[in-house]
Amino acid sequence: MSTNDPKNSSGENKKDKQLQAFRVNNKGKKLTTNQGLRISEDEHSLKAGVRGPTLMEDFHFREKMTHFDHERIPERIVHARGYAAHGEFEVYESMKEFTKAGFLQDPSVKTPVFVRFSTVAGSRGSGDTVRDVRGFATKFYTEEGNYDLVGNNIPVFFIQDAIKFPDLVHAFKPEQHNEIPQASTAHDTFWDFVANNTESAHTVMWAMSDRAIPRSYRMMEGFGVHTFRFVNEQGQARFVKFHWKPKLGVHSLVWDEAQRLAGKNPDFHRQDLYEAIEKGDYPEWELGVQMIEEEDEFKFNFDVLDPTKVWPEELVPVKIIGKMTLNRNPDNYFSETEQVAFHPGHVVPGIDFSNDPLLQGRLFSYTDTQLSRLGGPNFHELPINRPVCPFHNNQRDGMHRMTINQGPVAYHKNSLETNDPAPATEEEGGYAHYQEKVEGRKVQQRSDSFKDHFSQAKLFWNSMSEVEKQHIIKAFRFEVGKVKSKSVQQQVVNLFSHVDADLAEQIAAGVGVKVPTSAQPSQETASSPALSQENTIKAPATRKVAILAEDGFNFEEVSGLKDALKKAGITSEIVSETLNPISSSGGQELEVDQTLLTSDSVLYDAVYVAGGKDSVNSLKAVKEATTFVNEAFAHFKAIGTAGEGTELLAAAGVDSSAAGVEILESRNSESFIQAVAQHRHWARQV
Ligand code: HDE
C-alpha cells in the first residue's frame, strides 16, 4: 500500500476542494491595493493641481499600472490557442492485471481531471476552426501524483525523431520574413518541409482529412500517439497506446464552413464547449487501450516505436477501460487554462515510457518550455498544477516560491533530519523505472524498421469513404494551390505519387503540375474501417437548430417542433429579422433569440423554416434568410419545413427532394430529428 492512498471514494472532488482555497470573489468587498490598503479614489490619479502633472507619490496608480504592464506571458510555442474544462475520470473495472496505476484500480474512485484542447499552429488569438491538428491534453490529479496524457486528435505525428521538431514547427508557423499566413499550413515552407521529409506523408494525409476540421472538441477522438508501457505489480510490462472515444461520435465541419466560421465566430469551438457544460450537456469520452505483449514487439509490419504508425484497431483491438466526463468550466481563463503546464513525463507507477525517439525528446522539452513561459522553476505550485497529494523534496527557492519549507536541511543524505524526505520503496509507492534491457552503440541513425513512409498513408487512403476521399483531394488542392513555388508543388505531387496514383493525379491536375512517369504507388491493399468517420456514432443529442420565423408563423407547428427537439436533446433558437417578439397567425407571441444579422447558418447544425404564409413571405424578402437556407444546404445540413415553408426553400434554390431535406407532414418532427442526427447528408455531394 502506498503512503498516498489511491482510494478517494468519499465522493468529494479533491482538486475542486484544493482550488477553493485559492478562489477570490470581490462581491461586496472594498477596493484595496495588493498590500491590503483600502483605496478611496480610483478615477483620478494624484496631481499637483487639477490641471497639473501626476505625482510619483501615487502608489495606487503606480501599482495598478505596473501590474497592467506585465499582465502578459509568452504564449505557448505551439498549441498557443486552447480551451479547457474540469471533470472526472472513472475506470470501469480494475486494470490490476495490466497496470498498478492507482487510478486504474477501483471503479468507485473518481479521479479529478483538467483537459485542455488546442490548435497547434495558430497564435493565442487565432481562429478555432482552422485546418490543423488539435491538442487533447489531460491532467489526472491522482492520489499518486499528477498523470498527464498529452495527446492529439490525430493518432500519428509528422516526424519520427524529436530532433526534427524545431524544423517542423519553423516550417508550419507563419513564414520567417513576413509572418504570413496565420494558423494555416497553406504556404510554401510547410509543403517544402513535407516534400523533403517523407516521414510526414502519413500524418499529412490525416491533416488533409476531415479530422483536421472538427465540428466540436466534444466530437473528436484523442490519442496518446506514442507507445507507452503498462507495468503491473509483478513487474510485467506490455506496450500500450491510449485512445479517447467521444460518446457523441467523431464529426467534422466542411471546409467552406470552417473558413466562414473563422470570421463569423473565431471562438466557435471554445464557445461550444463552454455552453455545453453550462447547460449540463457534459461531454464524455471513453478511455481505450491497445496492448501488445512485449514478446510480440516484432510481430507486426510496423515498428511499435514508430510514432508515424497506427496499430490498426482490427489487428490490435481497443479495450474500453473507463470514462471521462467534463462537467465544470474553469473560474478563470488565465489562472487555469493559460497557466496549466502539461508534461508527457508526468507519470505514475504502472505507466512507463517506450523508446519511441519522439517521446524521448518530448520528455525534455515540456519542463524546459515552462521555465520561460511561466517564469521559473516553481510553476508546479500554481493552483492548477498542484497535485492533490502532498509533495516533499529538497528542491528550494527560485522565482515565486510559495511553500514555506521548515527546518535547516535541504539535502540528501542527511543525519539531522534522519534522512527525510526519504525515497519510498516500490511497495510504498516509489516510482521505479521499468528495467528494460538496452544495449547498443552510440549512433545517430534511424532504424530500418522506421523507413516505410507510405504503406500506412495508403492504408488511411484505402479506409476513406468516397466523400472523405473527395474532401482530402480538395484539401490538397487548396493547400498546395496556395503554394507559390512550382517546384514545391511538383515535389509534393512526386511525394504523394508514392501513396496513391489517383490521389497524386488529382492533386497534380488541381495545381497544374505533372505526375512523374516513374511513380510507384504503395502496394498496400488493406483498409481499416475504424479510421473512417462514416462509421461513427450518429445521434441528435446536443445539436443546434435555427428556426427561421417572422410574424404570421404557425404557432402549433413551431411549439410542437421545439418540444420534440428538446426531448431529443437538441437546442433550438428562433432567428428572425429583428429581436422584437414575433406573433403567430393566431396572435400568440414568441421570443426571438437571434437576428438574421447576429446569426448565420454556419453556427447551427440544421435549419428549420417555419410555415405560415405571412412569415414565409417576409423571409422571402430578406436576402439573409435565403442565404441562410442556401448555405445550410450547401454544407450538407438537415433542412426542415412544413406548409408554405417550401416556398422559401425554392427561393433559396434548395431541391426539396434532396437527401436530408424534410418536408414535415402532419407536424411529425421525427424525420427531421433523424436527419439532424445524420450530421451531414453527403448524398447531395455524390
Ligand atoms: Fe508537444 N509541445 N511536442 N506534442 N504538445 C508542447 O509544451 C513538443 C507532440 C502536445 O494544452 C509544448 O507547454 C516536442 C506530440 C499538446 O498546454 C512544447 C515534440 C503530441 C500540447 C512541446 C512534440 C504533442 C503540446 C509547447 C516532438 C501528441 C499542448 C507548450 C518531440 C502526442 C499542451 C508546452 C497544453 C505542447 C514540445 C510533439 C501534444 C514546446 C519537442 C507527438 C497537446 O514543450
UniProtKB/TrEMBL annotation:
Gene Ontology cellular component list: cytosol
Active site: 79, 152
Top enzyme category: oxidoreductase
Cofactor(s) needed for function: heme
InterPro entries: Catalase, Catalase_AS, Catalase_clade2, Catalase_clade2_helical, Catalase_core, Catalase_haem_BS, Catalase_immune_responsive, Catalase_large_C
Enzyme nomenclature, EC number: 1.11.1.6
Keyword set includes RNA-binding: no
Molecular functions per Gene Ontology: catalase activity; heme binding; metal ion binding
Residues bound to heme: 76, 116, 165, 362, 366, 373
One BP term from GO: hydrogen peroxide catabolic process
SMART domains per the UniProt record, alphabetical: Catalase
UniProt keyword annotations, A-Z: Heme, Hydrogen peroxide, Iron, Metal-binding, Oxidoreductase, Peroxidase
Region annotation (Disordered) ranges: 1-32
Annotated family: Belongs to the catalase family. HPII subfamily.
Role: Decomposes hydrogen peroxide into water and oxygen; serves to protect cells from the toxic effects of hydrogen peroxide.
Annotated protein name in UniProt: Catalase
Species in which this protein is naturally found: Fictibacillus marinisediminis
